[in-house]
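WARN retry 2 of 3 for item q-0093 after timeout on previous attempt; input resubmitted unchanged.
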Amino acid sequence: MNAEPPRLFSFRWCYPDGTVADSTHSLLVTFELTPSGTGTRVQLTESGFREVGWEAARLAERYREHRAGWDTFVPRLGGYLARLLSTP
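OK item q-0093 returned
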């Protein structure tokens, strides 16, 4: 995990078998936060798809799955943070 509070944090997907995630076989997810008006702009980048060595069809499938997942969950971050901040 890498962090540069309050503007950047990143992590690698870990494997359930305990394998240590590194650049040769894991995906890197980075969140960059920048002020925007009265809020914050979130830019998410997930990289490493080609580096893990998947065949083209599996790579394309995984990419589509991850994109759909991020498209579902990233828009929910604002509401989640609002609930966290409103909890006493």
